[in-house]
């Protein structure tokens, strides 16, 4: 059961490499290996790259997030508000920056 005292979505910058299981996480598109915005959405942790690729990272658990990122930069109580704030609501889907 979700704990109503906790925000639904938390975001935190992480400038250093991440290797929660001893394997450094890298972007599958551009091979970047550091400088992540991390998103904790409910029980899942997502990584977003500067190249705008994002993915669910199963090596990063909610527990890991809680242990290492105790002071998130942004928090939202409402899923839809967070998605709009993060431009994850589909508004920019398919937009190409030339
Ligand atoms: Zn990338």
TrEMBL record:
Protein name: Uncharacterized protein
Organism: Kitasatospora setae (strain ATCC 33774 / DSM 43861 / JCM 3304 / KCC A-0304 / NBRC 14216 / KM-6054)
